[in-house]
Amino acid sequence: MARIFFDHISTSPLDPRVFEAMRPYFLEVYGNPSSHIHDQGQAALKAVDAARAEVASLLNAGPGEIVFTSGATESNNLAVKGAAEAAGRKGGHIVVSDVEHFSVLNALIPLRNRGVEVTTVPVDSDGKVDPGDVAGAIRSDTMLVSVMQANSEIGTIQPVAEIGRIARERGVLFHTDATASAGHIPLDVRTIGADLVTLSAHNFYGPKGAGALFVREGVALVSQIDGGFQERGFRAGTENVPGIVGMGAAAGIAKREMGEWDFRLRRLGKRLWEGIAASVDHLHFTGHPSDRLPGHVSFWVEYAEGESLLLFLNVNGIMAASGSACSSNLRGHDEEDLVASPVLRAIGVPSDICTGSITFSLGKGNTEAEVDEVVSVLPGIVKRLWEMSPTYLDYQKQKAQGGA
Ligand code: PMP
User: Does 71 sit in the ligand 1 pocket, CB within 6 Å?
Assistant: First the structure.
C-alpha cells in the first residue's frame, strides 16, 4: 500500500540536499565555533556564519540579527519572555491573538504570574485577526504584540504587515511566529515591520532541533538560558553546528524554490479541496478561503470524529493531522480546553463537534495521483464513521421523520 504523507505542517521530510550539506559537520568538521583559535573551530565558525547569512537572506534581515535556537518553541519563549523581561518594568501588558501556538500562550503563564496583563484579540470565522482590534488593545504600558504569520491548524495567513505598522506607530515591539509559513510564503522583516520573528528549520525541509529568532538590531531581550556568551549573549550553549548548517541550506533552497513550490502546492491544494467538497456531505472547510498557506486544506465533518478519521486514514496509508483536539497537557487553561481545539473554538465551530477537524498539509514531494487517492478514499471512511455514530443515526431518523 502506498503511504501518502499529507502532514507537512507537523514536520517536513529532510531535503536530501540539506542532508548532504550537513554530513561533513558530523564527521569531518566537529569543532566548536567558540573555540576558533584552531582550524577545527574556525571551520565550524565559518559554517555557522554562512548559515546565518542564508537564514538572514530568507527574511531580508542582517546576519547579525539571527539568533540560532533549538527550534520554534525555544524561539517563541525567548521572544515573549525575553522581551517582557527586558522591558524591565513591573507589570506591563502584552497583546496576542486567540490562535497563537501553545509555545506563545504557555510562555505567557509565568509572566502573568509576575503581574503582566495579557489581552487576547479575537479572530473572525476565517481565523483572521482584525488589525483594528490590535490597535484598540494596545495600551500605554504595552510591551509586545505577538501575532503569528500563519496558523498551522487552519492555514489562515494574518495581516502581519498592517499589525506591524500599528505596533511600530505605537512604539510597541512586534513578534510574529512564522513557524508554519517561513520558507513557504514571502517573509520580509522590513516590509512587515517585525522586531522578532520565530523560525523552525524542520518546517521547511530542514533538520529538527534547529530554529532561529530574528532579533532586529537594537532590540533588547533577556536570554532565557544562562551560560556562556554564544549567539551574542541571547542564547547560551554550544551551537548545534550540523543543525545550523542544515537550516542554512534549507533556507537557501526555500528562497530559490519557494515560487515553484507555491505554484504546484496551490494547484494540488485546489484539486484536493474541490475533490473532497464534491464527494463528502456535511463538510465544512476551515480557515480563510484564499489567504492561506499553499497546499493546506483543513475541514471538519459533522458527526465524524477527527481522531477516528485520522486513524482510518492511516489504515488506508494516508497520514494527516487533527486540529490539536485533545491537548490534555495544557497548563493554566480551563476544563473545556481538554476537549475542544482552541483554534476551532476561536473561529466559532460549535464545541460539540469541535473534535472533528482534519488538516491535510501537502509538501513539495506530493503528486496529483496522491491527491486523487485521498479524494477517492475519504468518502468511504466518512460513511463508515457515520454508520458507527449514534448522533448521525439520530440525525438520519429525524430526517426520515421530516424533522431535520
Ligand atoms: N509555532 C507554530 C505556529 C507551530 O505550529 C508550532 C508547532 N509546529 C510551533 C510554534 C512549535 O514548534 P516546535 O514544536 O517545532 O518547537
Answer: yes
